[in-house]
Design brief:
The complex is a heterodimer. In chain A, helix 3 packs across helix 4. Chain A starts with a strand and ends with a helix. Chain A is α+β, with helices and mostly antiparallel strands. Chain A is built from four helices and seven strands. Helix content of chain B is 40%, strand content 13%. Chain B folds into three domains: 8-204, 4-Layer Sandwich (Aldehyde Ferredoxin Oxidoreductase,  A, domain 1), CATH 3.60.9.10; 237-427, Orthogonal Bundle (Aldehyde Ferredoxin Oxidoreductase Protein, subunit A, domain 2), CATH 1.10.569.10; 439-647, Orthogonal Bundle (Aldehyde Ferredoxin Oxidoreductase Protein, subunit A, domain 3), CATH 1.10.599. Classes of the chains: A alpha+beta, B alpha+beta. Strand 2 (36-37) of chain A pairs antiparallel with strand 14 (209-210) of chain B. The complex binds iron/sulfur cluster (3 copies). One iron/sulfur cluster binds at residues 25, 28, 43-44, 59, 108-111, 117-119 of chain A.
Chain lengths: 173, 657
């Protein structure tokens, strides 16, 4: 079957490091939308090492319950970056792309339902460019936010503890 | 629930090491907005007139503007407020960059420091966790270096760090506070931070900031965004390139410096070099600049790119913006830009004001050439222009030898050196070094702005009104045809009638009444920007800006939930400006201090200047001494301020004339 695929081209050389994309992403995903701002909740983040000329927009990828077997470590322009510095996965090895309070995973949903993704719209320097194309693909079901959240909780605490907690909550009314 | 503001201050008593998170009175928002407005209120309430800059009782405030951290583009100013060591008045150097938003997300609107730490420390704010940490190992470190070291030691690459360098540690009066690509540099804020023994303030925030009517806020931003895009694609015609765009002056992008190098004065604001900008210079300066600039960068949430990452030859990388690209070369009479890129990095590490400091060094060289300073004062100093400046900079920030005298700025240095030095310290207002400009004919608007503003620094006062009359009627008509930013349409006629020469020209036109109105409008806009935290480059400091008196009330209302109209907004900043003035008057500011440098214009008109001042004061609701009258203060609910000024014998009862 045919499926719509969105590709974001990230022209990182044009990024001026303003963080407008982070701001609007977090605001759009607040509930209700735009009722609050907190870039720490954004699903895009700018990895910033200004003096090394690194301003790298990275979108939050999929939640993964387990760390990679090996870690990548980049050396750019003589500077050694920390392990996994430019990875987009929401991974137990680090805090990136997790809700600051709950630690629950964040994933870029391409601002589902909106015409143009908000980060793209608010980046006036046109660093982020979306293209949509159709391609042949096997049926794929993207888990919803709630499911991803539950899965990460289960991975962290075990199903038993989560069930207990839910049961306690429900009896409390 | 608090909207747009965090609703908390972080109060730190450095002597006792006491840290408090203090909930603020919601009424401050509705009376003074935030940023500079509420800083002035804190200073008025808490810093008595006897307190000097380096007294423990002086407060050192670092504040976020009311709308910093919201999705409003270009709203990112940190407003520092403290007593200036240079003129004993309220200093409020500001900086762009990223710090103010981080503070908001950490849950605070202001950090207020009082008293002095017994040893050198830095402050680390991570949401609710606040620590005063030892900084002895950072003593003597550069302001940029310190930011990197602290981020590393905290293992917080996303923390924002505002730091001082050696100049601040040594209480040099031109010491700045540096952060990322920005610096708060005017009037010695860095010296007070150093006096309090605080090397840096690092902040990281991951909290929510609330908007009262967020969706509506975004709709207003939609319109503003359209205008920003439009202006970026359509520079204004008939004005100099540097004034044609929006944002702060695009010094990192423009390479054509004919205007600055030929119209601004070289040395200690001394000589204009007409004909300097030859093809050859153009080629060499442009090449140096293009090679040095690695990337254009912005402040927090701003689409413009006024700053740059500089990678010049073998000089360690640093970030630069604005006129600091030229000030050192021009002050030293060095005909290349290479020198400026080299010394500017050293100056940023030392943490000094890039306007005042080059002038101070040029002043020292002038004194040497005039025989007022001796060779022995320059013992060990290289004799070439560039070497001399490096040497002087080093002496000043270390306060060694002649550097100790110069570190207090040209005004005090001249008085200490004597022997005719006062004559050569010619470019200060209220003891503070000014832009190096020397012109011919008195400009009545600039005369008022220079003389009267609380900022004591012209670039934060001017902006919305064109710098000069357009030569042709057609140009004037075209300019006013599309000018929605004006507070009122009748201003259009002033511009239409304004001619470059003749009767309807400087110094008698605009008339004193018109001048008072125009200046009042421009400074009102600056006061709004400084309360909200907007970059003046996108509002009050730019022709036909994206933000103005007609859209500000909508943004403020949607963000805070407090419904405010234009009249309400004007009243709030009028209140803070009058309180600001009362604060300075209580500290000794008088009409006699309100004057531009003697030689700023060749052609002066004492009688007309007096009329300008009288008219402006009256327009502001001040008496002939420049003090807000009781009536003015009472209209702004500041009756107690009038009582205070009266009880000190400053304001005389019934003196409303
Ligand atoms: S909005 Fe654009 S320019 Fe700004 S940080 Fe994001 S990607 Fe970079
Ligand atoms: S596409 Fe939408 S969800 Fe994804 S990072 Fe951009 S604003 Fe956030
Ligand atoms: S216009 Fe320039 S100085 Fe102003 S906020 Fe934007 S980048 Fe910073």
């Amino acid at each position: 079957m045919l499926k719509k695929v969105k590709t974001v081209t990230i022209k990182a050389d044009l990024c001026n490091g303003c963080r407008a994309c982070e701001i609007v992403c977090s605001a759009f995903h607040a509930s209700p939308p735009f009722s609050s701002v907190n870039p720490a909740r954004s699903r895009i983040r700018i990895i910033r090492y200004p003096l090394s000329d690194i301003w790298m927009p990275v979108f939050a990828g999929e939640y993964t319950p387990a760390e990679c077997m090996g870690r990548d470590k980049y050396v750019l322009d003589g500077k050694v970056y920390e392990e996994c510095a430019f990875c987009r996965a929401v991974c137990p090895s680090r805090d990136a792309f997790k809700e600051p309070d709950s630690g629950l995973p964040l994933r870029c949903d391409m601002c589902e339902g909106e015409g143009e993704p908000w980060c793209v719209k608010k980046c006036l320097n046109h660093v982020l460019v979306v293209e949509e194309r159709e391609e042949e693909a096997a049926d794929q079901i993207y888990p919803q936010e709630l499911e991803v959240g539950v899965e990460s909780l289960v991975n962290r605490y075990g199903l038993g503890k989560i069930q207990d907690a839910v049961a306690r909550r429900s009896t409390r009314g | 629930m608090r909207y747009a503001e965090a609703g908390y201050h972080l109060e730190i008593d450095l002597a006792r090491g006491n840290i408090e998170r203090v909930e603020t009175d919601p009424k401050n928002l509705t009376t003074y907005l935030g940023g500079l407005g509420t800083n002035v209120k804190e200073m008025w309430d808490r810093v008595p007139p006897e307190t000097k800059a380096f007294d423990p009782g002086n407060l050192f405030i670092m504040a976020s503007g009311l709308l910093c951290g919201t999705p409003a583009y270009s709203c990112n100013r940190t407003v520092v407020s403290t007593i200036s060591p240079q003129n004993n008045l309220l200093a409020y150097p500001m900086m762009g960059g990223f710090w103010s938003a981080e503070l908001k997300y950490a849950g605070y609107d202001k950090i207020i420091l009082r008293n002095k730490s017994p040893k050198l420390v830095y402050i680390w704010v991570h949401n609710d966790k606040v620590e005063i940490r030892d900084a002895e190992h950072l003593r003597g470190r550069g302001a940029l270096e310190t930011q990197e070291l602290i981020k590393k030691e905290l293992n917080q690459p996303n923390a924002c760090v505002a730091a001082i360098g050696l100049a601040g540690e040594n209480r040099v009066f031109t010491a700045s506070i540096e952060q990322s690509r920005s610096s708060a540099s005017r009037l010695g804020g860095g010296a007070v931070m150093g006096d309090k023994n605080v090397k840096a303030i690092a902040v990281r925030g991951t909290r929510d900031l609330y908007l009262a009517r967020g969706a509506e806020f975004m709709q207003h931003m939609e319109e503003i965004t359209k205008y920003i895009n439009y202006r970026n694609e359509n520079p204004l015609p008939n004005v100099m390139t540097i004034l044609s765009g929006i944002g702060s002056p695009q010094e990192m992008k423009h390479t054509d410096e004919k205007w600055h190098t030929e119209n601004f004065a070289w040395g200690n604001a001394r000589t204009r070099r007409r004909g300097f900008w030859t093809d050859e210079i153009n080629k060499s300066w442009s090449m140096t600049q293009t090679n040095a600039i690695k990337r254009y960068i912005s402040c927090f949430n701003c689409p413009q790119q006024c700053g740059a990452l500089v990678a010049h030859a073998d000089v360690p990388r640093y970030m630069m913006k604005c006129f600091s690209k030229l000030t050192y070369s021009m002050a030293a009479y060095v005909d290349n830009l290479d020198f400026n890129f080299r010394i500017a990095r050293m100056a940023s590490e030392y943490g000094v004001d890039a306007f005042s400091t080059p002038q101070i060094m040029a002043f020292a060289v002038e004194l040497l050439e005039a025989g007022i300073l001796r060779e022995k004062d320059f013992d060990g100093c290289p004799t070439d222009k560039e070497g001399r400046f490096f040497w002087l900079l080093d002496r000043i920030v270390r306060r060694e030898g002649i550097g100790d005298v110069l570190a207090n700025g040209t005004y005090y240095a001249a008085r200490e050196i004597g022997n005719g030095a006062e004559e050569l310290a010619h470019n200060t207002i209220k003891k503070h070094e000014q832009l190096p400009i020397k012109l011919g004919m008195l400009d009545p608007l600039y005369f008022l702005m220079y003389s009267t503003n609380e900022k004591v620094s012209i670039t934060q006062i001017e902006g919305n009104w064109p710098q000069g009359a357009f030569p042709t009627k057609e140009e004037r008509e075209a300019f006013v045809a599309d000018w929605p930013q004006l507070p009122d349409d009748h201003f259009k006629q002033y511009l239409l009638d304004w001619e470059p020469r003749g009767e309807k020209a400087n110094p008698f036109f605009p008339t004193p009444d018109m001048c008072a109105e125009i200046v009042d409008w421009m400074e009102m806009l600056h006061n709004i920007d400084d309360a909200l935290g907007f970059c003046a480059g996108m509002a009050s400091f730019c022709l036909k800006p994206p933000y103005h008196i007609h859209n500000y009330p909508k943004l403020i209302s949607a963000a805070t939930g407090m419904d405010i109209d234009e009249a309400g907004l004007r009243k709030m900043v009028r209140r803070s400006r009058n309180l600001h003035r009362a604060f300075n008057i209580r500290r000794g500011l008088t009409r006699a201090d309100e004057k531009p440098p003697e030689d700023h214009w060749k052609r002066r008109f004492p009688e007309h200047e007096k009329l300008l001042m009288d008219t402006y004061y009256a327009y502001k609701g001040w008496n002939i001494s420049g003090m807000p009258t009781r009536k003015t203060l009472e209209e702004l609910d500041l009756g107690s301020v009038a009582d205070d000024l009266e009880s000190r014998g400053l304001l005389k009862e019934g003196e409303n004339a």
